[in-house]
Design brief:
With 472 residues, the chain is mainly beta. The chain is built from 3 helices and 33 strands. The N terminus is likely disordered. Strands 11-10-13-18-15-16 form a 6-stranded mixed beta sheet, with no helix packed on it. 6% of the residues lie in helices and 42% in strands.
């Protein structure tokens, strides 16, 4: 009887959650977690069509293990990650370990592997002992199907433990893991096969619609915020609170980066940030995704309330965040780079906006577009000649952003994803939008073939991706 009562109360909470005023909102829930044991995380993901609920809507969609919110995988540097992927849908699929500095060779993070319908594959990803600690994620990277499969639910968070080790002051702080994901549902209760990013989109936080987050006044929490959706940008604001960014894309910063209330933290597709939040005075506050426009020929997104933050209960003495001792990092933008290690990468698209190019070419998985030497760093100028935003991402390694539209950027750390302004976005910028980055190719583990691309699902599926090979 007790179990039945608990089940019915949980069902009532889900049923009454309408993401707005009235009714009983759900309480925020962290995703299920799977931890490595004795140096190995060994699990199985079955991809299949399942019927799930998003707010007050039902949708039949392809997910891992019957859930729209797959588990967070937690590993340590030096561990072995083993995932058996079983494919029970009528499309090919695969897995990519986004942001991880691991080998691209099979059976590790090889995105050229395609698991056919009814097939399976055993991934084994050795995580180097010196791997960065932080927030990463895993997702489908099936060529031509990435947008559809990620929007359907084939993405989840992967954490490499140890990020907070330099900060004993933060020991024991509550940790919230936030999956930000967009999903469209057609009249048949399915994800449309022909997705238009500007169509009405359901915005979810861990599969929930506007859940309630509890915090005590003065309490410090760590929020791992991951944009693991298909197309959507998230311009984030937290009412009445400062978000203190400590890491981005699985890389700890060299300093605290405050985003005060009223200022916006922009999270492009596939970006992850780890922020500290300290509870304000007792009250109710909104965690907001603002409306966003990606450019004159791009997409327009409505805003949404991601969660409601309730500060209540016994007041705590706030942790002195100014006492946090961040690591010293190498400033790659100050390193001398020979002319033959400088490249220009041009993102462009057709006049009808249906085909996308890198350096004038559509993606061909059988052609190596760029060859780099292991042991070097290179300066890339990524240009955008279109009138909509693009999101540059490279596999296996990280980079430092040096300039955006000619403006030097403050050095706070490294990342694997960056927003590229569109042509004409800055009225003071003549010509294409432009981002100058320095990419680190010195890690020998990256030897092999991988890709760089725009991480907006629609764009990469329609050509905006290129093959790179790292050679000795």
């Amino acid at each position: 009887l007790g179990i039945l009562v608990v089940f019915m109360l949980g069902l009532m909470s889900i049923t009454c959650n309408n993401g707005g005023g009235g009714g009983t909102k759900e309480t925020f829930r962290n995703p299920k977690e799977i931890f490595s044991k004795n140096g190995v995380l060994d699990t199985m993901f079955r991809v299949k069509f399942s019927k799930i609920r998003i707010g007050d809507k039902r949708v039949t969609t392809s997910v891992f293990n019957d859930t729209f919110v797959p588990p967070t995988l937690r590993v340590f540097p030096g561990d072995l990650l083993k995932i058996r992927l079983k494919n029970d849908i009528d499309q090919m699929t695969n897995l990519h370990y986004h942001g991880m500095n691991v080998t691209p060779l099979s059976p590790s993070d090889d995105i050229f592997i395609m698991v056919t319908p009814t097939g399976d594959f055993q991934y084994e990803v050795p995580i180097p002992e010196d791997h960065p600690e932080g927030t990463f994620y895993y997702h489908s990277h099936a060529f031509g199907l990435t947008e559809y499969q990620i929007m359907s639910g084939l993405s989840g968070v992967l954490i490499v433990e140890g990020e907070l080790d330099p900060f004993p002051q933060l020991e024991g702080v509550r940790e919230l893991i936030m999956y930000l994901r967009d999903i469209q549902i057609d009249s048949d209760g399915r994800v449309p096969t022909d997705i238009d990013p500007s169509d009405p989109t359901n915005i979810t936080l861990n599969g929930q619609v506007n859940p309630t987050i509890k915090i005590r006044p003065g309490e410090t929490q760590l929020w791992r915020i991951a944009n693991i959706g298909a197309d959507h940008y998230y311009p984030l604001q937290l009412e009445g609170h400062t978000m203190y960014e400590i890491a981005r894309d699985g890389n700890l910063h060299n300093q605290l980066v405050p985003i005060p209330s009223g200022e916006t933290l922009l999270l492009p597709v596939s970006s992850r940030v780890d922020v500290l939040v300290q509870g304000g005075p007792e009250g109710v506050y909104e965690f907001i995704d603002l409306p966003f426009n990606t450019g004159p020929v791009g997409d327009t997104y409505d805003g949404a309330t991601l969660a409601t933050l309730v500060s209540e209960g016994r007041e705590e003495e706030p942790i002195d965040l100014s006492s946090l001792n961040f690591p010293q990092l190498e400033n790659l933008c100050e390193q001398p780079i020979p002319q033959n290690k400088k490249r220009t990468i041009v993102f462009s698209e057709s006049a009808d906006g249906n085909t996308f190019f890198i350096n004038g070419k559509e993606f061909d998985p059988d052609v190596v577009d760029t060859t780099v030497e292991i042991g070097t760093i290179e300066e890339w100028t990524v240009q955008n000649t279109s009138e909509e935003l693009h999101v540059f991402h490279i596999h296996q390694t990280d980079f430092q952003v040096c300039e955006i539209n000619g403006v030097q950027q403050t050095f706070v750390g490294y990342q694997d994803t960056v927003n590229v302004p569109y042509m004409g976005q800055d009225p003071n910028q003549q010509g294409p939008g432009e981002v100058k980055i320095v990419i680190n190719f010195r890690n020998p583990v990256i030897e092999g073939k991988f890709v760089y691309h725009c991480h907006i699902g629609e764009h990469e599926d329609n050509g905006m991706m290129a093959v790179i090979e790292a050679v000795p």
